[in-house]
Amino acid sequence: MAVKDRALFETYLNKPDHMGSECAYTNLFIWRDYYHTWWTELYGFLVIKVEVEGKTFFLQPFGGRDEDLPLLLAALKDYADGPFEFHGIYDKSVERLGKVVTDPVFEEDRDSWDYVYLQKDLATLAGRRYHGQKNHYNAFKKENPDYTFEFINPENYAECLNFGEEWCKTRMDTDPSIYWEWRALQEAFVNFEALGLRGGAIRIGGRIQAFGFGKAINDVICDENVEKANPEIRGLYTAIQKECAEKVWTDMTYINREEDMGSEGLRKAKEALHPAFMVKKYNLLVR
Question: How far is CA 107 from CA 88, 260, 275, in A?
Fold first, then answer.
């Protein structure tokens, strides 16, 4: 049955059991109002559609059998009334899709590549290559001897959320998309336990001034979805990153700190932390 002949693409919120353990699903949930995320199951595949800033695309298909891919592609083409795009294609799916798409051209989406670090590197900042970050951290501790670290829990959800709101409000005038970041933070803290999130916060002078949180993907790697800090406090970003790695993610081998979204400053900062490897992603136009 063709996709457009079905009452499909319900909001992702309507089927929380499909979030599974993948942190990508957590992001889809808390950002669903911005990305207008819809989903369906078709021919054994999980299909996720995204509509953002006037552009519509599908994420790479999940699950299903290789022999059913042609059926899925035909259905999606019928639904889109012509060519459509897959985004967020991982290396292991390039070969899979390349076998069934005519003359495929996979376009590297560098802005969406994930930065993955060794937990021990971020937790210790040991060695010459982390000399700069270690200096920032030491300066922070010297200038803020009364700081404390605490795990995010129901007792400080509201304080963390209030700080997140303050952080967002100072930036909304120059970047309207920050409004949606604020909405995503609300969703995250309201559903913190249900989403299986964990994180930590830094308190200075009795007030929350930084927090970071994420979710374990499996027994080896976690995804740190969000990190916020008061930029007026020297070394605070380094401190929350280090202390979360050291205390929140002690059972992890790797920490995925996600993409840089094409921001030059963010890319420079993430590269300076020396990722162990990058998770490449590609886009594909299916004609």
Answer: 10, 17, 22
